[in-house]
Amino acid sequence: MDSATSSSAAEGGAHRGRRRRLPGGLRLRIALSVTAMLLVLIVAQSLALVRLNEEMEEEFITGTLDEQLHYSIEHSRRLGTLIGPQTPNMTLYRFAPGEALPQGLSPALAGLAIGNHEDWSAGRELHVAVREADGQRYVLVYDESEHRERESAVVTTVVIGALMLTALSFVLVYAIAARLTRGLETLAERVEGERDGTPFAHDGLDAELLAVARALDRAETRQAAVLARERDFNANLSHELRTPLAGIRSDAEMLLTDPALSDKARRRAERIVATTDRTTTLANTLLMLAREARPQALETVDLGAAVRRAWERLHPAAAEALTIRSAARAEIVVDASLLELVLRNLLENALRHGEGHAIEVVLEGRCLAICDRGPGFGAEDPMRSFERFRRGGSKPGHGLGLALVQHICTACGWSVRAANRPGGGACLTIDFGPGPASA
Predict the structure, then answer these.
(1) For position 429, what pLDDT does the model report?
(2) Cα 108 from Cα 102, distance rounded (Å)
């Protein structure tokens, strides 16, 4: 597992958490889109129903007025008296032109032409039918208030029905979309989860999902091939370098044992030894990055004592340059060799960039922070310091120390963070977390 893969794996859990907290965007868009189209159809149908109901009511009223007038005129001729309608909202008037108008009939209605009319002069809608027969004028007035109430009831019923149908459509479409997109969610969870080599594509997938799954399988195969080539290259390079480096260092050490060696040549031999050691460290780091840094033998380790031992091996002559602050004894269950490698790289980084100031180590619970008083990480994102071959400033080093730290921490289930110190300098913090890694 390389550092890029480790970072992706570490970020996968957080990404899965964010995705679970968010609503299904695709299914929501499908539900809203389909419901919007259904809403347009429902509104159009509702308007058509209301319009049809209104036209049918108008035809019914017109037919009722015509029948009532015909009935009243015919019976008035036979009986000689005015036969009025029995419907409470209809009133029939009869008068001869030039005579006084009947009580309750306004001149505006009396003066209407022969035919059917709608009138608003009384402050409400009236249907008025005017006929003449045997020298008499008949005026039948129909109050539409009851009709309008029925029409309002119909409109209210249609609107409520449309809203309920729209809501039901949204729920049903959302449920259907959720069922159809469940395969995508399952596929996404498999992509983000721990991979066991099982192909994404399998029988039973829909054609569209099968195409996506096959594309993921091909991409995973290509990525695995690239990572394998990188690991093989790093492992082969580090292995091939160690043998000649050991020979160079041995020759340089033999030169240093020669008493006739001049001071100038002695300094050059010492630089050869130091450079060879740095190159060997680089080769070992590359080899570690190319391998799975899995914990092997777990044991209980006193974290404070482990920090002191790592510092003494790194800088035995300057024990006072390290300050350890701890509220209580901190013990964790770890692979001691991996912990030592992490501590050595963190302390070496702090020593390199600390500008000669004392290094402060803070132990708090299951967290370890190593801070220096150097220039810090500047304006860039401090987390970029864990990238491979990223070197801070002009300080010597190969830029792989912190990448190795992150690689080991990810493999062990720890988390490592980098931040600028408020008072100046940098802090690198490891959280050993709960579970098997804690005491």
Answers:
(1) 92
(2) 13
How many CB atoms are closer than 10 A to CB 66?
A: 14
CA distance linking residue 66 with residue 60, whole number of Å: 10
Query: Taking the chain, what is the end-to-end CA distance rounded to the nearest angstrom?
Result: 27
Which of 300, 338, 352 minimizes the C-alpha distance to 430? Answer: 338
Enclosing H/E stretch for 3: helix 3-21
- For the chain, the structural domain boundaries read 226-290, 298-437
Q: Which residues of the chain have pLDDT under 70?
A: 1-24, 195, 234-235, 237-239, 281-296, 316-320, 327, 389-399, 435-439
How confident is the model over 308-328, as pLDDT tens digits?
Answer: 888 887 775 654 577 788 767
Superfamily of domain 298-437: Histidine kinase-like ATPase, C-terminal domain (3.30.565.10)
* Two structure tokens written together for 32: 């809203």
Helix or strand (DSSP H, E) at 146: helix 145-192
One-letter amino acid for residue 404 of the chain = L
CA separation, residue 159 to residues 4, 35, 44, 154 (Å) = 58, 16, 12, 9
